[in-house]
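Bench log, entry 3. Co-assembly request; chain sequences pasted below exactly as received.
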Amino acid sequence: MAQPTVDVALQRTEREPAAASKLEAFTRLSADDKSALAQVTGNVRTVDARRDLVSEGDEPRFVHLVLDGWGCRYKTLPDGKRQIVSFFLPGDFCDLNVYILQSMDHSVGAITRMKVAAITPDEMNSLMNSRPRITQALWWEDLVSAAVQREWTLNLGQRDAYERIAHLLVELYLRLRAVGRAQHGRCDFPLTQNDLAEATGLTAVHVNRTLQELRRNGLIELDRKQLHILDLDRLMDVAMFNPNYLHLDHEGRHLDANA
Amino acid sequence: MAQPTVDVALQRTEREPAAASKLEAFTRLSADDKSALAQVTGNVRTVDARRDLVSEGDEPRFVHLVLDGWGCRYKTLPDGKRQIVSFFLPGDFCDLNVYILQSMDHSVGAITRMKVAAITPDEMNSLMNSRPRITQALWWEDLVSAAVQREWTLNLGQRDAYERIAHLLVELYLRLRAVGRAQHGRCDFPLTQNDLAEATGLTAVHVNRTLQELRRNGLIELDRKQLHILDLDRLMDVAMFNPNYLHLDHEGRHLDANA
DNA sequence: CGTCTGGTTGATACGACTCAAATTTGGTGG
DNA sequence: CCACCAAATTTGAGTCGTATCAACCAGACG
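Structure output for the full assembly:
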């Protein structure tokens, strides 16, 4: 099987920073906006796969912006159980105003090797004071990530294993596609079955069996960290996937600050 | 059994508006701050119990502030399943910036009869431009509600029925206590077992049996819409409840704008 | 009073978990 | 380039938590 996804993803990385690309899903940014954004994302940090970026209990210091790679937020229970509560994909911001809080209530870990920009509160404030268009876009991001968290609550509470995993796959695919990292049903997919288990509240064994069922039903191929969704419409149907919560339909999408 | 809770709750309502009370959990507000807040909460709407305030698909128009009563956000699946994704208690704001979005991805319903203030985007903007202290407090609220949503994800994903319900009871109790609507382990508790089921992803039957188990173990009394937590420490233990996510420990709690 | 909503009980079924072992994959160093 | 090891995936058998379905009961209300 050819793997065009990889090439596409790499090309894209070179072509355009994920941050601007993501925010432009909400609104067009002017050249000035983009350079303001670029200025603020100078402090780049690289984190190895499976390392923590932030630990529960830490004092929040930076707003992070994912430039490349996948990460997750997770919480741990005293009995050792772990729940991944969200995934970070390229272009995602973590917690616009976290630094208001005293200490983190969750950890942030890298799934793959990641590149993140660490933005200081000061930089953040000056960005939000001088660039209203970016500010709006950041708020939009914030609202969308809250909506995603609500959808996960629904996912865990009401969907069975089959629907649940289908839903997660569709969400990740659509989010990747929105930042140019997926096409034609294909994308990189670095999650292990254990990651999927921790995100869906299932066991790895059951995730395994459920993925097999999705394959058997001709909905997906998943192999060597490559996901291929064979029939997106049908998979969305199975997952009862309503894309409204991703709010990709904003009119700002069609505004152009340069016009 | 005497029911002092009711009296306490009523007294409190008269004594102090829930909004200021809630925000002051984060920071002290000056007299000016409070009057700015009061000005903006003039447009009060009353909603009957079990009626919807906002429906999925609606265009967001107002930021709502709960003055009195309980409400919830919920999402519905095409197969009819319903998930309550959060509860609104007196003093809670719904979605600071919702009006940025095109359409609501969930509904908001009243559990009891509710009084809510409907704040316009303009009012909201001017508040946030002129009252930095309130703005900070609003952001804090926003971050806390996001943290609560993450904790619910953990709750649904990793805790069993017994722990799950225990956790929810503790959360609601602590949140009520933080706005002066609970004391000595007691509070009003207007949720039906069906509400609890829809919030915890369990069936009403199983919620019933689980509540009985909590009663049998001497952890709670729950009768006629009155909750009495008999042993908060033990209940928190059972629930593996870590209060850090409520961020009640903010230093702002001890700041005083009037000093 | 009858009706309705919410709460309770019992019997049975099934989705997902557990534990344990086998197999495959990917990375590493000789 | 192959041998090795650890990590990830796969398989099987047995169990358990929670759902389902169907009654029945109690208090609130008109």
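Residues 132-158 of chain B form the longest helix (27 residues). The longest strand of chain B covers residues 82-88.
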